[in-house]
Amino acid sequence: MRLRFNFRVYPTPGQQIELARAFGCARVVFNDGLRLRQEAREQGLPYVSDAELSKRIITLAKATPERAWLGEVSSVVLQQALADLNTAYRNFFASVSGKRRGRKVAPPRYRSRKDNRQAIRFTKNSRFKVLGNGRLRLPKIGDLAVRWSRALPSTPSSVAIIKDATGRYFASFVVQVTDELLPPVESEVGVDLGLTHFAVLSDGTKVAAPKFLRRAARKLKRLQQALARKQRGSQNRKKAVVKVARAHARVADTRRDWQHKLSTQIIRENQAVYVEDLCVTGLGRTRLAKSVHDAGWAGFTGMLEYKAARYGRAFGRVDRFFPSTRICSDCGRNNEKMALNVRTWDCPCGSHHDRDVNAARNVRAAGQADLNARGAHVRPGLVPAARNEAGTHPDAARSARSVEGISVR
User: Fold this and answer.
1) Which residues form the Probable transposase IS891/IS1136/IS1341 domain (predicted)?
2) Where are the domains of the chain?
């Protein structure tokens, strides 16, 4: 399995200039390649192949006075920028033809130097190296100081240097890890995700919704009001933008840290985990959109899925149209629909149900039935690297401990 580990890096002022140059060159190469293909399409010419694009945009462009400065950065950075463009085109074509599942993918767009997130990638061909003193050596940039929160399990195959909206720099390593099979346990659990409680387990455990964004609403409101009063283009406005970005980053980091702890505990304590396949995109268009996005269900279920694959647990998703709420978990009777304000109900068979606990039990039963119908659980093959597997925000762990809900052991 491939996993992605993120670590904070601290470049010197000179290294920040070199990184900014690399960000700019990668952006220009990406935009030049996109422009060339768009012009070929408008003129009715054949699609420009990947090899031809690399030759014209990088190799030949370096020999011209207009693009001679492309030679100041590592060629691997430029090649990886074109690789991102080619991947974007392939995803778009697969989405249009119906070969790609999920939401429709838009065609590639031009990158801007004003984008909140800038990134470049180095592969093994660039010969980047983690030195014995803990620094990360990158070609034509130098040795970056890294804040290691853990040791890498194996030699990384690539590293991406990311600058976020707050001005922080991160090194994101992709490494190949071996499965760490946990001792088998007897319990299996169904998870019902919600807003009143973030998660309700089939064993009756209820995890309080942290509502990180709601808790930071007052501070965000004050910072955004201060930003709105600043004159556009001024230095004070740029400073206010960074303050707002830092507040949002703190919310996101704290949420991610808390979800990692909760998902790890659920995986360790249960042999199989079943969740409902919620349509987060659709719920994000309702009046509950802010609360839905604050909950972060998609990120949490993604953590459960890849951790189950890594630690030898079973994971299943129950169809979103499965009526888990109104089916009696004791007799199996499918009752009438009920309003959201109905939190407890009685079945004609005499059973009294808590709405969420009953739904979690039905999710577990449906997941077990689906797993038995498909036969023995088959371990997945290569799992894509999960983003932000390792968080290094200095305040994330301290902030998560004060949240009500499940205790992390």
Assistant:
1) 173-283
2) 2-176, 188-400
